[in-house]
Write a structure and sequence with these properties.
150 residues, alpha+beta, 3 helices, 43% strand, globular
């Protein structure tokens, strides 16, 4: 089960970073490369504990839907979401925010299990883990840009 961890320092308050990371509209802006949009559940505004959102996106040239639920929220320091329906067998994503050096250290921990047993494990090694890492890093850098410049 791959675990992807990424840390991004952002020159903005922990509250700003936290709110940007859980904002559905900002999520759509920071995932333009996959044409991600909220199509079910909470489709705009800030996510709260218990909220469910269905995302539609294009990955590997295939339009897909994934439904996630926010299971834990500790404002403004941490929230986590899990997949309840989608292409993965499962995923668990922890978003953590630590006040540091007049800014915020944003930490993503994304753990997932691919479908299809051994074939999924091979896909992880060949391309999926790298693809997911790039997706998380790209989104973190887009959040950093918004937090520091807008």
């Amino acid at each position: 089960m791959p675990l992807i961890e990424h840390q991004e320092f952002i020159q903005a308050s922990v509250e700003r970073c936290f709110d940007l990371a859980r904002d559905v509209d900002i999520h759509t802006r920071t995932t333009e490369g996959t044409k991600e949009k909220a199509v079910g559940g909470v489709t705009t505004g800030l996510l709260l504990a218990g909220d469910i959102v269905t995302w539609e996106a294009v990955h590997f040239g295939i339009r897909q839907r994934l439904t996630a639920k926010v299971t834990v929220m500790d404002i403004p320091y941490m929230f986590e979401d899990i997949m309840v329906k989608g292409a993965f067998q499962s995923f668990h994503h922890i978003h953590e925010f630590i006040e540091k050096d007049n800014g915020t250290l944003m930490i993503d921990r994304f753990q997932y299990r691919s479908p299809c047993g051994v074939i999924g494990v091979i896909a992880d090694k060949l391309f999926l883990e790298s693809y997911m890492r790039n997706f998380i890093v790209s989104r973190a850098r887009a959040l950093k840009h918004i937090a520091e410049n807008e």
